[in-house]
Amino acid sequence: MTFSEFLTTFLPGRPYWTISVLLILVIPCLLWWLARQSVKESLKSHERRRVAYTRTMKYLVRAAWALVVILLALAAAGGLAVGMDSLIVMACVIAAVVLPLQLEVHGFGIGWDGYWLYTKSVWRRSRRIPVNSVTRCDYSQLLQSYRLHTQKNGIVTVPVFTKGIPDLLALLPVTTPPYPPALLQGGTQQTET
């Protein structure tokens, strides 16, 4: 039985169209679930003085790498009727997306001691920023991140998929958006800290 025959058995009609629609529906739901899990884990990790990616995100990265290995194993074993070339291309595309995510998830961190913010990222140099140099804090719906605007050190981006955000927001000497973001809690308001 070929992969196409397998799909038409369980998804009559146009299986590839059905799969595309399912993916379009599943991916936003997965991202929303990841954000909710991150909020739950963030609220539990109180007073850690550190912002880092949650275990849920780290498990997602591991699962994506496992998918790459499975696709390559299928290609090495002769694959399905889809063809070895298609499996290798799919594995390479997934790996190209997962590698930057892997670097971000394991290389990102923000720590603080009450006077300084210490940032670590694989995408830019590590920084030590005075807490009182934060001039504004907002939330970007597009980036799904809190953005800390500083006087001389640019913008510090804190993704919503990280834990430790409530403690960081409480430390800041400026008005901050609510945590969790309005999209995840159902309302919009500003809180004074």
Keywords for this structure?
elongated; single chain; five-stranded antiparallel β-sheet; 6 helices; 193 residues
Q: What is the gist of this entry?
A:
The chain has 193 residues and is α+β, with helices and mostly antiparallel strands. 49% of the residues lie in helices and 19% in strands. The chain has a domain at 110-185.
Structure commentary:
By secondary structure, the chain is an alpha+beta fold. It has a domain of 76 residues. Helices cover 49% and strands 19% of the residues. The strands form two sheets. It has a five-stranded antiparallel β-sheet with strand order 4-3-2-1-8. Strands 5-6-7 form a three-stranded antiparallel β-sheet, with no helix packed on it. Strand 6 and strand 7 form a beta hairpin. The radius of gyration is 21 Å and the shape is elongated.
**Backbone shape:** elongated
List low-pLDDT spans. Answer: 186-193
Spatial separation of the terminal alpha carbons: 62 Å
What does the radius of gyration come to?
Answer: 21 Å
Order of helices and strands: HHEHHEEEEEEEHH
Oligomer state equals single chain
Number of strands: 8
What average pLDDT do the residues reach?
A: 80
Strand coverage percent = 15-25%
The class by helix and strand makeup works out as alpha+beta
Q: Helix coverage percent of residues?
A: 40-55%
Helices, by number, come to 6
The biggest beta sheet reads: 5 strands, antiparallel
Spatial strand arrangement across the major sheet: 4-3-2-1-8
